[in-house]
Amino acid sequence: MEALRVSPGYEKILPQEYQDLVADGPFGRDLSVKDLGTFKELIEEHPLCAGCGLGLSIRLVVASLPNPENTVIVGTTGCNSILMPQLAMHNVHALFGNQNAVASGLRRALRLRYPEKNKDVVVVAGDGGVADIGLSPTLHSWFRQEKFTTIMLDNEGYSNTGGQESGMTRQGMVVNMAPLGKKFAKPFPDQEVIAAAARARTIIVPEHNITGWLAREIKSRVSDNAKIFGGPRVFGGMTMPPEVIVTETKKLLAERGGHLGLTRPLVAARG
């Protein structure tokens, strides 16, 4: 923790943001998502598209880290990589798709260099980097049982490069550069959706395009369809101003008596 302190005489020179992080950041404190709003966060502003849930997803991921001062995030090219330079943590930008290979070597090196400390490595990357072009490095890190966490930000397409379909894009989904729709299916997280729906009073589904496929998929797996509602549409290239999304979401919640949370990037639900 000494490395995070301001050296005497530099207090007035360093930016206020840095001083606030040292004085009131999460480093060395037992904080989590439930404490959001009570401390200086490691990411507060970002250049992502207005209304995109990616910024919130990364905010929640970072707030969940038990040891941010001893954690390195490894990412790759994607929408999230636009945000990472503004994250007040050690982070590595790997070549596209090989982030799990880089994380494997980094985790081993840290274990050798600091055997007495728990140095964490967390991969945070999109579906293209983790499960499409980068699938081989991802799987082989799991085969070797490497000791780090992989988090996939699944927005179901290559939004950062204009909207091409990926292996995670759903069947029939129309994106900017797949105007006829995806031709083959993607597995659906049945158990996750069923478990989230069971404890929720209201489920708001941010629809990705006019076909309404996500709401239909969820309704086909949940017995009580009366608590499932379509929400504001959000997708790279088709975003809405954040104030509109917040207003529309609050309106739905007020009408249905629910509370807003996240179970995955595409589903908002909470009991």
Mean pLDDT: 79
The low-pLDDT segments are: 259-271
CATH topology of the largest domain: Rossmann fold
Helical run tally:
9
Question: How many domain modules?
Answer: 2
Number of strands: 7
Folded structure, characterized:
- The protein is 32% helix and 13% strand.
- It is built from 9 helices and 7 strands, in the order H-H-E-H-E-H-E-H-H-E-H-E-H-E-H-E.
- It folds into 2 domains: 1-155, Rossmann fold; 188-271.
- By secondary structure, it is α/β, with parallel strands linked by helices.
- It has helices at 16-24, 54-64, 79-83, 99-113, 127-132, 135-143, 190-198, 213-219, 242-256; strands at residues 71-76, 90-94, 120-126, 149-153, 202-206, 228-231, 268-270.
Give the tags.
alpha/beta, Rossmann fold, four-stranded parallel sheet, 7 strands, globular, 2 domains, 271 residues
Quick take:
By secondary structure, this protein is α/β, with parallel strands linked by helices.
